[in-house]
User: Which sequence fits this backbone?
């Protein structure tokens, strides 16, 4: 029976092919949307593991999370080093990592931090960062830089290479800090998170960058070089706020040697607690600190908020994908139904050689089953090819990895639902055929 | 064993005012070839449908191979039909996208009895039948049926009706689309093959020039006198 249906479909291979294509596109779309969503959630959730609180200048928690953990966008106007020290000295706090942001290296975000970052940062369910080559940022060497796996792979960087960063966060920048180069000290092993796309430099190096920029008149066209208003201009520099006022620098030098370099302002602090149950109390204390307007963000809560925002778009995408599937199914019903009249003769002949109306009914259902199954298989192939093609782009642009062989129970269930929908849809023409063959008997008047 | 025996058959299409069929008695002996003639639209095709078990007939009226067709239910009739009856229609006998050979073998795919009676190698038997019916060119056998001429198609249909030696062949005006020469040749071949297979043949036509190929000739209008 299946062979017979196959032959019958092969006879109409052009229309059958189009039907299969329509179904396969809808399958690829449905699974693709789900995988994209899961990929996004996984990669975001993996990126933020191990951090109990992110403290940043007062702002929207989603924005703070995106800026710090994913290097997308920026935070507010910076927080004082005093606030950092206050945080670090709180009894609940186990560790605190200072973060400076706002520069980029050929489109990849540059993070100013210190060695503690590599000690405390966790990803993908608690794994620490590890090096593929070289060393982490050490206390000495202000011009040291550690690059993420993807940055290293894309530009073929190895320890010892000299790199130049640019101001702002755009991919194309003409404002290069080429007078303050860094020497790569280490390359991180791949993590599958946003870290792969980051460049880490020391706080001192990050500041040195901008100290150089403040130096007089390298470029007469650059308003920053004008001696009178150079400080105001820094607000224009696309989200860079970790700028250092060097006049105040001396103040900190005598106080303590905990941090080799103490910038005046930083953009954010990653905080780890001794006891996680104190997180809400600390959050309140931070939010209420009078001297500096700060927000303390729980990464998990901010992620949930983010999903709340993207949820509408996700639902719309999913609805679209299922609408395409519906269109595919209708296409199949149209194809099977449109040919019924011309095939009446065929069915009469089949009956004359002993096929029961039930078998002819089954023939139509079998054809639908073949079309749907072929659509499912082709859809998976399309999806695999699409994943293969877009994976490098997605991971470069958004740090998203879809993975080629994720084929979970939920996807199986989705495929099964589509298959059943195909069979169910085929009942419409099949019932018509059943009635028709009963009425026609063996002699069809054409 | 009678391939076909009809006794006191009365049939009225559902909703029709008058009976279409009213046949007192008609029977065929094994291997007998009967020519049933009558004008178009007099109920010949209805009779064939009744024998083939496509329309509901009262029990006890039609026996094919000594089996009461009216007593069988729907699906069983379809299976019984292919086991015992080969059919040839006026035109469009073949599934267009199957090859001539596959069309001939169709009854064997639906009937175990026909398969068993086609010998060790049904495909070989089918080729022999095509060969005997004048389609010896092997390229014809593998061609899709839609590419054959009408005359060739009718001979493929005859081969399909004959394969597996059914008890009875019902032929419903199979020559009406053929020219005079092809007509005579077709009936001649069909009659010969039926004789060889020991299959009874009920041949329905309005064309009395074919009468002399048959053992017996019956006027349908006279036979159907019982209709009222």
Assistant:
């Amino acid at each position: 029976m299946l062979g017979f249906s196959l032959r019958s479909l092969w006879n109409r291979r052009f229309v059958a092919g189009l039907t299969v294509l329509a179904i396969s596109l809808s399958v690829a779309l449905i699974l693709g949307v789900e995988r994209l969503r899961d990929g996004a959630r996984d990669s975001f959730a993996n990126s933020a593991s191990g951090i109990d609180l992110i403290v940043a200048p007062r702002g929207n928690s989603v924005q703070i999370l995106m800026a710090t953990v994913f290097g997308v966008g920026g935070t507010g106007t910076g927080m004082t080093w005093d606030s950092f020290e206050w945080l670090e000295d709180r009894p609940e706090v186990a560790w605190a990592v200072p973060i400076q942001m706002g520069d980029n290296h050929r489109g990849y975000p540059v993070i100013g931090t210190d060695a503690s970052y590599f000690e405390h940062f966790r990803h993908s369910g608690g794994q620490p960062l590890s090096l593929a080559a070289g060393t982490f940022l050490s206390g000495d060497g202000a011009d040291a830089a550690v690059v993420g796996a993807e940055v290293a792979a894309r530009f073929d960087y190895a320890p010892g290479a000299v790199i130049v960063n640019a101001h702002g966060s755009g991919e194309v920048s003409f404002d290069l800090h080429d007078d303050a180069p860094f020497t790569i000290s280490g390359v991180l092993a791949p993590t599958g998170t946003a870290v792969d796309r980051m460049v880490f430099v020391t706080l001192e190096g990050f500041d040195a960058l901008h100290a150089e920029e403040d130096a007089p008149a390298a470029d007469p066209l650059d308003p920053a070089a004008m001696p009178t208003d150079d400080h105001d201009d820094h607000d224009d520099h696309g989200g860079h706020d970790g700028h250092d006022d060097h006049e105040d620098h001396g103040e900190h030098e005598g106080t303590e040697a905990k941090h080799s370099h103490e910038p005046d302002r930083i953009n954010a602090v990653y905080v780890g607690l001794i006891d996680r149950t104190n997180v809400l109390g600390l959050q309140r204390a931070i939010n209420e600190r009078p001297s500096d307007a700060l927000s303390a963000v729980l990464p998990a809560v901010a992620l949930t908020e983010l999903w709340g925002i993207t949820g509408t778009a996700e639902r719309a995408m999913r609805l679209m994908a299922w609408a395409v599937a519906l269109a595919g199914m209708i296409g199949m019903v149209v194809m099977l139904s449109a040919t019924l009249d011309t095939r009446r003769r065929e069915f009469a002949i089949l009956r004359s050689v002993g096929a029961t109306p039930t078998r002819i009914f089954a023939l139509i259902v079998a054809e639908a089953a073949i079309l749907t199954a072929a659509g499912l298989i082709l859809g998976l192939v399309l999806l695999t090819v699409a994943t293969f093609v877009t994976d490098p782009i997605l991971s470069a642009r958004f740090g998203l990895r879809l993975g080629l062989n994720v084929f979970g129970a939920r996807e199986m269930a989705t495929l099964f639902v589509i298959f059943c929908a195909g069979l169910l849809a085929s009942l419409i023409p099949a019932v018509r055929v059943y009635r028709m063959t009963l009425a026609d008997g063996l002699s069809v008047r054409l | 064993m009678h391939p076909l025996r009809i006794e006191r058959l009365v049939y009225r299409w559902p909703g029709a005012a008058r009976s279409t069929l009213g046949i007192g008695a008609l029977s065929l002996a094994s291997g007998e070839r009967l020519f049933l003639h009558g004008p178009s639209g007099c109920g010949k095709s209805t009779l064939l449908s009744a024998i083939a078990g496509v329309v509901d007939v009262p029990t006890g009226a039609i026996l094919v191979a000594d089996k009461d067709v009216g007593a069988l239910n729907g699906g069983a009739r379809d299976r019984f039909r292919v086991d015992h009856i080969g059919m040839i229609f006026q035109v469009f006998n073949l599934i267009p996208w199957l090859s001539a050979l596959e069309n001939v073998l169709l009854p064997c795919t639906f009937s175990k009895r026909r398969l068993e009676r086609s010998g060790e190698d049904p495909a070989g038997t089918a080729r022999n039948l095509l060969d005997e019916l004048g389609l010896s060119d092997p390229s014809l056998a593998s061609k899709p049926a839609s590419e054959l001429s009408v005359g060739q198609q009718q001979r493929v249909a005859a081969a399909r009706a004959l394969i597996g030696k059914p008890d009875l062949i019902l032929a419903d005006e199979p020559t009406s689309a053929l020219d005079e020469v092809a007509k005579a040749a077709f009936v001649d071949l069909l009659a010969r093959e039926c004789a060889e297979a020991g299959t009874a043949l009920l041949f329905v036509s309005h064309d009395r020039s074919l009468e002399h190929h048959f053992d017996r000739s019956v006027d349908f209008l006279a036979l159907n006198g019982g209709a009222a």
Remarks:
- The longest helix of chain A spans residues 357-398.
- The first strand of chain A starts at residue 53 and ends at 57.
- Residues 53-297 of chain A form one domain.
- The radius of gyration of chain A is 31 Å.
